[in-house]
Amino acid sequence: MSARDLFTFSNPHFTRGVGITAAILIVTAIVGFIVLPFAQPWVQFANVWDAICSAAGVPQRAPVVAAPGHEKRLSEVVLTSNTLARPSQEAIGRGATLAQRCAICHGPTGISRADSPNLAGQYAAVIYKELHDFRSGARTNAVMSPFAVNLTDQEIADLSLYYAYLPRLPAYHPTPQLPKPNIVIYGAPMRGIAPCGSCHGSLDNKTGSPWLEGQSEAYMKAQLQAFASGERRNDISQQMRNIARAMTPQEIEQAAAYYASQPPDVVKAVD
Amino acid sequence: MLVNRKLILAHFWLAFAVFGIALTLGAWQMFIRSPIGTWLSNPELYYRSLTAHGTVMGYVFPTLVAMGFGYAISESALEQRLVGVRWAWTGFWLIVIGSVMAVIPVALGRASVLYTFYPPLIGNVFYYLGVVLVVVGSWIWVALMSINLRVWRKAHPGAPVPLAMFANVAGAYLWAWTAVGAALELLLQIIPVAAGLKATIDAGLARVFFSWTLHAIVYFWLMPTYIAYYTIVPRAIGGRVYSDSMARISFILFLVVAMPIGMHHTFADPMVGAGFKFIHSAFTALVALPTLLTVFTICASVEIAARLRGGRGMFGWIRALPWDNPMMLALAFSFVMLGFGGAGGLINMSYQLDASIHNTQWITGHFHLIFGGAIVIMYFAIAYDLWPHLTGRELIDLRLIRTQLWLWFIGMIVTTFPWHWVGILGMPRRMAYFDFGDPAIAPQALSVTFSAIGGFILLASGILFLVILARGMRAPQAEAGPYRFALAVHQPATVPIALNTHALWVALMIALTLTNYGYPILTLAMTEGTSVPAVYVGAQ
């Protein structure tokens, strides 16, 4: 007995084994690549080869059609967990100088007294993304857009690194800490809402999501409403729009009030 | 002739010890997301536990059982000392080191990616390296099984390979080839990203690679169970195997058609063409064939035993079976669970029917019933059968063994039937938390509660199993005699070369992998712009 006796057409097991396997493969291939594609009345194929390519999943360029006119620009920022991962002292210093012009709203120490976001200690990737979006027009704001429109890539990176470098100070207007509402810790699974804390800290943090503790209640409420109405649309893959649309007005108020009442992480650690 | 008993016992004990831990985690998971548990408020802990449960139950536990049983088969069926004992211990220790290496990042919450990896989710690199070590350890076993058979063939030219060893080596070859898919995914795609050498990953390609492993691995888990059906059960209940050739054909069919079918796991994914999905669906239907052959052959073999014991009539012989024999009980339970699980599997493999249960709790119910039920209950039976031969001590308390098997069977039915049911109702899988106060899923609360209770019955059975084996180590010494496998009604004197060697079938397995996977993998690998940024677990 040797391989030569096995792999020969005079061996009936070989002939039958290979023959039956090949026959099944050919029949299923004909059904899968030719019969079934044509059995779909809602799809039109030019010829058999077209059907085969479609069933095989040959990558096809989408036909060139005029892009629909964008009334609003989309965000083009790409974030990874390595974005701005290694800050240099020089970049932070340049950012500090640039930040002088932001202080009027965001506060000289990055803590706002004007219901603008507190930026001190915010993640660099978050500020980086929002500045890029303000500059490109993916996010618009009467006050913010003119500031962002002339920033260079370098300036945006420097500003982001500077604010991320600042210590997280307690907000200027803390209210007594509220108990955690359900929307923050459980979300609402039946409406497809993940817990706020699963991206914005307290449970887990995802790249591009800001931490929210101590931010202005009015600001957060306004942003959730803007996401819900579609007025703000620079969130990645519509994540926030999908969530905000499914939230009740009461949940929006609860979430905004809860986060506004919380001290930032560092303060928590000192407690 | 079991010489290296310590080696085999080490594999079994490690397998059952990690099984005990993972079973406890599983019962906790059932409880914590059921209405009777209070929610933790931290889904990360749930996914951490789920990753550990899946990694142990999917990779470590069945692999160790297959290896330990494989060594036992090699020594006793071939009546030849194991060649390469030192290598076998190396494989064992690689699995120990790999398991520890994988479990530490999981326990620290740095690798909550589930055992199916789910790129672009990326965990700590040591988790993946640990899994690779486990696989490498098992490949040593594959090589040793092949070498031992080769040594035996040299000494017995032309003689029929004993059925148990023929099947065992078929299982080893199946594992060697099916593990290649996940190995390619880990080595070419995930580990470079986890190690920080790359920041993007082609998640679609990774899923195709994983489907290469994910379905055939089930048949690798199944092999020890089928070997026990054919070569242990008939002997243990005083019967004979109805047909040696039918058994060989079943194992050969598993080798050929278990592999090129994995894409039925990607029916809902966009990156594979519908034509390939259809081919995989059709081949998945074929894999029912060896199981049906096996059910027929084993029922016939069992009937032989019953008639030898004086059973009469069309169905009257069933009463004459030795129902107090744990092996008989385990076989019956296993078949019942295989029947229900297999019927569910036919739904999963159908392109259209799958759409209604895709990503629901039905799927988790299905693979727990098949693997945890039909397969694992025979692992218990194998351990009970081998234990006296490995320890030189008798397992005396048959009543306790029967209780354990009954509990496992009842527990598995109580766990998985409601699990299937809520899946049909649309309850999604892989969710850490359900709000049963919501009117939309409040009616499912009762089913999920039953399921969780089933989980505790399973835990009780698992503990009992470990207690029985531990007590078996201390029982009075008794010589169990040589370990033997069942004989066929017509014990073969010669076997055609195709049914006595694996080469032809391994060649067909590889050829079908190329035809069914080659084009999708090549196009995905060569198409630009299909990678997405990795999402690192726990990264800010």
Structure characterization notes:
The complex is a heterodimer of chains A (271) and B (540). Chain A is an all-alpha fold. Helices cover 48% and strands 0% of the residues of chain A. Chain A has helices spanning 3-6, 12-38, 48-56, 89-98, 103-106, 124-136, 144-148, 153-165, 182-185, 217-229, 239-246, 249-261, 265-270. The radius of gyration of chain A is 28 Å and the shape is elongated. The model of chain A is unreliable at 266-271 (pLDDT under 50). Chain B has a two-stranded parallel ribbon with strand order 1-4. Chain B has helices at 5-32, 43-78, 85-107, 125-155, 163-194, 203-231, 233-236, 244-257, 274-286, 288-308, 326-349, 351-357, 361-391, 398-424, 445-472, 497-500, 503-526, and strands at residues 121-122, 200-201, 532-533, 535-536. Chain B is an all-alpha fold. In chain B, α14 runs antiparallel to α15. Chain B starts with a helix and ends with a strand. The mean pLDDT of chain B is 94. At the A-B interface, α1, α2 and α3 of A face α9, α16, α17 and β4 of B. Chain B: InterPro entries: Ba3-like_Oxidase_I, Cyt_c_oxase-like_su1_dom, Cyt_c_oxase-like_su1_sf, Cyt_C_Oxase_1.
What is the string of helix and strand elements of chain A?
A: HHHHHHHHHHHHH
Reading off the top of the CATH hierarchy, the class of chain B is best stated as Mainly Alpha
Look at the structure and name the CATH superfamily of chain B: Cytochrome c oxidase-like, subunit I domain
CATH C-level class of the largest domain in chain A: Mainly Alpha
Which residues of chain B form runs of ≥5 with pLDDT under 50? none
Largest inter-chain contact set: A-B, 45 and 53 residues
What is the straight-line distance between the termini of chain B? 58 Å
Number of domains of chain B: 1
- Estimate percent helicity of chain A: 40-55%
Task: From the alpha carbons, calculate the radius of gyration of chain A and give it in angstroms.
Answer: 28 Å
Which range best describes the helical content of chain B: under 10%, 10-25%, 25-40%, 40-55%, 55-70% or over 70%? 55-70%
Sheet with the most strands, sense and barrel status of chain A: none
Number of helices of chain A: 13
Q: What kind of oligomer do you see?
A: heterodimer
